[in-house]
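seq:
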Amino acid sequence: MFERLTFTLGGIQRVEGRFRRVSGLKRTSPQLMEHLTAEMAELHEAVQSGNKQEIMCEVADILILASEIANAEGFSLRRAVQGKLHRNADKYPPRALRTLQKQRGMTPQEAMDFAKNRWDRNKDQQYMRR
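struct:
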């Protein structure tokens, strides 16, 4: 059934939404957050064990739950991720981070923290579109 589908973020969200409609399973965002928290704990255990198959499975579960939350809240997962990637590129410009590392002797994480502390949170809204 799924072999013919293209698994873009939008495609995943549509498949997940179809599954919920056909199955009649409706969960609220707070219920989904409980499941997401449990899946994050399972991912943590998988990473600790180093089992790639378990890690892949848990990451897939988390992506599916994120898609279900997007459907429940009525926004496009693709647009949200796209907006977040654009925001991060503006918030953490690679050239500026490298400059901080070279000129100020910062580690990559210190440069990221420096950029984060200088970011104007009011800008965040311009990146997130439904």
